[in-house]
Amino acid sequence: NGTLAVGTVAYKHEAAPDGTVTVTLSGLADNAKTARSIVEGNTAITSAIVNEGVEVIGNRTFRKCSALETITLPNTLTKIEQGAFQSCSNLNTCVIPASVQVIGQGAFAECKSLTEIVIPDSVTSIGDRAFYSCDSLTSINVNANNKYYSSVDGVLFNKNKTKLVQYPNGNKRN
Q1: 103 forms bridges with which residues in the sheet?
Q2: How far apart, in Å, are the Cα atoms of 79 and each of 73, 75, 127?
Q3: Cα-flanking dihedrals φ and ψ of residue 110, to 5°?
Q4: What does each of the 174 residues of the chain score in pLDDT, given as a tens digit?
Q5: Number of neighbouring beta carbons within 10 Å of residue 52
């Protein structure tokens, strides 16, 4: 257990009796609204809570946190940058808040345990391969009020359904 400061960001990690490690980002300076790659590659973290006030999950922030199973994101979050959760092979739960506008390139790539993603109506941009190689992902569902994206049977399209954006690897429909 302890707190580690990295630049203007601190993260506190606590181990529960069952061995679950929870990370809480805190100590953001008033002008620092971005969580950067402060825990990248940490293989002990099983769950993480990103505090309210954080607006951006920076490039590779949680990349290769292979034990990470759940992440709680704040309602202040507007952007998930490139590779933010890439190779979090045990991540199975991630609710994207209704405040998120941008999901970066490869943001959830290689999250092999992720089974479902719901894209809120606020999302205006999804980067290439955002959900690449997510082998258990069976559906990417889009809020019907989204002006830029749509989904049919869990498959992600642009709004007019003229461009396939992502076919989930775990979706075995013909």
Answers
A1: 80, 126
A2: 11, 11, 11
A3: 65, 25
A4: 333 333 334 455 555 666 555 555 554 444 445 555 567 888 878 888 787 778 888 888 889 999 999 888 989 899 999 999 999 999 998 999 999 999 999 999 999 999 999 999 999 999 999 999 999 999 999 999 999 999 999 999 999 999 999 999 999 875
A5: 10
**135 to each of 93, 129, 172, how far by Cα in Å?**
14, 13, 11
Residue 149, both tokens: 């994206």
Three-class SS state of 17: coil
Taken as a whole, the chain contains a residue count of 174
Structure tokens at 102: 């941008």
